[in-house]
Specification:
alpha+beta; GMP Synthetase, Chain A, domain 3; 2 domains; three-stranded mixed beta sheet; 4 helices; 3 strands; rod-shaped
């Protein structure tokens, strides 16, 4: 019984070969990353995390900053949250400037940004 199905499948694939090719191309395109920010760069950080860490580290009082960005599920939907770890986090003024900067960069509200003091 199973042997009789293969000629029918083969005939279907030959008859609809253009459709099969388009389907394969579509699946292949879905597998290609859409931006550099979603692909981890050197050290496991995304390009966005590296850029934001660099900017924060150059701000007065922050010190060397490390940033983690949590992406929303799906492609290109933005960020769900952010964590910043730096030596200057104990200063409320520095903490506020960090939250404002991360919010401006990511579009996140302050309730989705966590700033923690780095251990020495």
């Amino acid at each position: 019984m199973g042997e009789k199905k293969w000629p029918a499948v083969k005939a279907f694939l030959v008859k609809n070969s253009a459709l099969v090719v388009l389907l394969c191309v579509g699946v292949g395109l879905l597998l290609i990353p859409t931006s550099a920010e979603t692909a981890p760069a050197a050290g496991g950080c995304t390009e966005a995390e590296l850029r934001l860490s660099g900017a924060l580290s150059r701000m007065e009082g922050v010190g060397e900053a490390y940033v983690l960005l949590a992406e929303k599920p799906g492609r290109g939907e933005g960020y769900a949250g952010a964590v910043v770890v730096c030596p200057g986090a104990s200063d409320p003024g520095v903490r506020l400037r960090i939250v404002e900067t991360v919010g401006a960069f990511t579009g996140l509200g302050s309730n989705h940004i966590v700033v923690q003091k780095m251990i020495s």
